[in-house]
Amino acid sequence: MASQVNPPRGMRDFLPAEKAQRERVLSVIRSVYSTHGFDEIETPVMEESARLHSGLGGDNEKLSYGILKRGLTTDDLHAAKDALELADLGLRFDLTVPLARFYATNQAALPSVFRAIQIGSVWRAERPQKGRYRQFIQCDIDIIGEKGVLAEVELITATVATLSSLGIDGCTIRINDRRLLTSMLTVFGFPPSEHASVLITIDKLDKLGHDGVITELRDRAYPAGPIDALEAFFRRPQTMEFNPFGERAIRKALPEGADETAIAALVALAEALGDVSSLVFDPFLVRGMGYYTGTIFEVTHPSLGYSLAGGGRYDGMIGRFLGGDVPAVGFSVGFERIVDLVSLEGSATDDAVALLHDDDVPASVLVALKTGLIAQGSRVRLERKPRNLKPLFAQLAASGFQRVATVTADSTLESLEFRDLG
Amino acid sequence: MASQVNPPRGMRDFLPAEKAQRERVLSVIRSVYSTHGFDEIETPVMEESARLHSGLGGDNEKLSYGILKRGLTTDDLHAAKDALELADLGLRFDLTVPLARFYATNQAALPSVFRAIQIGSVWRAERPQKGRYRQFIQCDIDIIGEKGVLAEVELITATVATLSSLGIDGCTIRINDRRLLTSMLTVFGFPPSEHASVLITIDKLDKLGHDGVITELRDRAYPAGPIDALEAFFRRPQTMEFNPFGERAIRKALPEGADETAIAALVALAEALGDVSSLVFDPFLVRGMGYYTGTIFEVTHPSLGYSLAGGGRYDGMIGRFLGGDVPAVGFSVGFERIVDLVSLEGSATDDAVALLHDDDVPASVLVALKTGLIAQGSRVRLERKPRNLKPLFAQLAASGFQRVATVTADSTLESLEFRDLG
Questions:
Q1: Average pLDDT of the segment spanning B258-263
Q2: Any CB–CB contact under 8 A between A348 and chain B?
Q3: Model pTM?
Q4: Which domains does chain B have, with CATH numbers?
Q5: Cis link prior to A192 (omega < 30° from 0)?
Q6: Are B35 and A76 inside 8 Å of each other by CB?
């Protein structure tokens, strides 16, 4: 019978051990970001439906959950032309649209350069599949109000430090700039109206390889000239020599005529970051979201086939609800991807003991012992003695309990005899 | 313009100082509950609509937010007889219905006596008014699988310890038992079919006083006999002598014929709790929710006009989705009510410094200094030097920064001169 009762499709329950692991990882992320000068904020999980569907969320808008308006009559239902008319609010599908709304609401109370931490759940009505959830946690840091590369530098430094505190070292940071992609496509001869669609194909380079990308573009019946130019560029022997990161490497990896402002920004970034981590210039890094306007970056690890974090500059978006441009850069850590990679132990000073008792031990005795042990600094669990101790001991050990003692009606704090668990 | 952009009605943004306070309070609550042997779990924010509307949530069911089904066609809208048909999921309005579902799903993996911590947001479409929010945090602890008063004792002890760790001492715990209320109404002659409705009026005793309750009951045209009996009982001189808590006080405060099992449970509870806190037997404590089956309790503070925490035994509910009775007791702390009462300081060892710089200081210099100070254990914020320092310094002090130094292009860690803020 119990097997028929499940959480909603694509959503998860977290049992004690998994929840404790998630909270430990979140606590490290919070703490390192805070050390790097970021301040945590929180917004409601819902935003107005019109704001969620204002074109800032890309494909994610289509995956957003609508909240049914209150007090709808049957007439309202019958008059509706589209289900969306019945939703005045929706659940956030990312933390960036809410941040833009938050900034518009609270700008007057925020510093002129605002470094935000946001940690919270987002919801997307994805087709359920392995590793894709309909409710998952995002951890974002954003710097709003800083035009220069200092913003990118602080975000990247803080993110590398966070991953390192979680024991994830040896990451590579792939960097590119949206303006370089655009200028490169222009050099090859793709008309601006086709750029967004061509980038969707180039974004699949990791999966399709050079030949696959060219084939897909030809299948789509783009004019041959620009595709030939891209193919020739792919075939240049030096294309893959992205590292070491610096002006020479950047220029070598780009065609003549690439955007000079973007090159200068990347060079400044490389100089400021020094040897903070393994930086790689990747002229074909795209990052899905259409709102990026400048630098884009992604953290990968040699042993993993997916990125651990990613972000970029999106100067047009934060000001959207304010009616003006506001410079902004963001970095998002893939919490659900890293939480299982990390092994963090509970605090070493955490003494956790279990007290086994039979039904005949009065509650007053149990409470007195528990209170006494807590006062001595222990975490205490009372357990009624089962017939078979083994499963209980395994469960206690999994919850981090280290010692166990049996309590009788005349036990005192001094008389308890503890044995080690497991 | 900014003033027109707001979070959804009845919901709140949390700016850095407020968010930090909330996280500090949550962290104390988590830690004390964990010390008392409870394990934190998490469920999705949504549950199936049918489960949320299964009668377990009382009036809150009517306030629940429905999630619009995906892929609805215009025909679906026009065929619907009721808006609820268009929602397959809903946002949780409390943490108790999700706990019952969680227990049914995961029982096989949980200990036979399961002590749960749940900390999370819930949503209710309340009419917006001061102090009532449509999204707010609940902090619940529940013990599932324990029939005896030990469960009540552990919940009350843990809650009192939590409030005390938050600096809230001197609370009073009012205790009653649903079975006593029922037996008392039977003694006075109210028919069982009227009990629920009479209890709604008695629940207003604090607000209406004895005379107000009697008047409201007479206005509702109940038979005079039972009302006269209740009125006579109210007038007994000893009714208000609830303290000290013990068998004599309990019997004195009840009419002849009150439920003996409940009296025995309260006496056992009083004995086990000893002098843990100021216990008061209140024979007219009702607690709103209809699902309570035994002990009920509420924490009040002499200086506050509202309760800080409340709970009770609800043996019928957890087993609802499993098809059997499962003993359960829960205690919920009114997080939104206490978060503003508490003054917790940031960690004392937290050295937080700001580095002021002009535009001409290279990003590489700033990052090197920041990284160096972080390595020495400081929290570091970079700030571009504004014309007017005063507002910036006030903001920094509010965010917990204690010292500030000005950086130039040739600054080194050794050459920085810090001055105290504020």
A1: 94
A2: no
A3: 0.91
A4: 2-338 (3.30.930.10), 351-420 (3.40.50.800)
A5: no
A6: no
